[in-house]
Write a structure and sequence with these properties.
By secondary structure, this protein is α/β, with parallel strands linked by helices. Helix content is 34%, strand content 31%. It folds into two domains: 71 residues, Roll (Ubiquitin-like (UB roll)); 86 residues, 2-Layer Sandwich (Translation Initiation Factor IF3), CATH 3.30.110. The two termini are 32 Å apart.
């Protein structure tokens, strides 16, 4: 819907307005009373569309229909908006094959929806001695998802985590 509340009919407080007819044709600068009478003659509203102009611009239109069209356009834009953002998936170096495949399927779904996916392999205690196991997991993830995404960033071991971000292929 419109951000600014437009003034209609008797809410307009100016002496003269630049009048635009119902079909979009410019009628000219007329006194407000004449513009209100012209709108009432065709059973429509007089809407101030450009209040900062000198003189303000007022258009003869069906205000209820205009609001409905604005609302519908906003809904349509929201529906067609591309998903953005990032999803996170965590795993451990000892994640089993079946669980790994489930995480790959979930990541594939996120990538197809337009999200980028951050993978984190979390190490505990003795697992920190063999970080290459977790890094091999990240390599396998990148290989399995190569058809729908590309590796955006990849960090080695940082503290207890190894991280990789994969973004959808269409975004690059």
């Amino acid at each position: 819907m419109a951000d600014v509340k437009l003034r209609i009919n008797n809410e307009i407080r100016t002496r003269d307005v630049r009048l635009i007819g119902p079909e979009g044709d410019q009628i000219g600068i007329v006194p407000l009373k004449v513009a209100l009478d012209a709108a009432a003659a065709v059973d429509l509203d007089l809407v101030e569309v450009a209040p900062n102009a000198h003189p303000p611009v007022a258009k003869v239109m069906d205000y209820g229909k205009y609001l409905y069209e604005q609302e519908r356009a906003a809904r349509e834009a929201k529906r067609n908006a591309k998903a953005t953002g990032q999803k996170a998936i965590r795993m451990r170096p000892k994640t089993d094959d079946h669980d790994f495949d489930t995480k790959v399927r979930q990541a594939r779904k996120f990538l197809q929806q337009g999200y980028s996916v951050r993978f984190q392999v979390m190490f505990r205690m003795r697992e920190l001695r063999r970080p290459e196991i977790g890094l091999q997991q990240l390599d396998k993830l990148a290989e399995d998802l190569a058809d729908v995404g590309i590796v955006e960033t990849r960090s080695g071991l940082q503290g207890r985590f190894a991280t990789m971000v994969i973004s959808p292929k269409g975004n690059n």
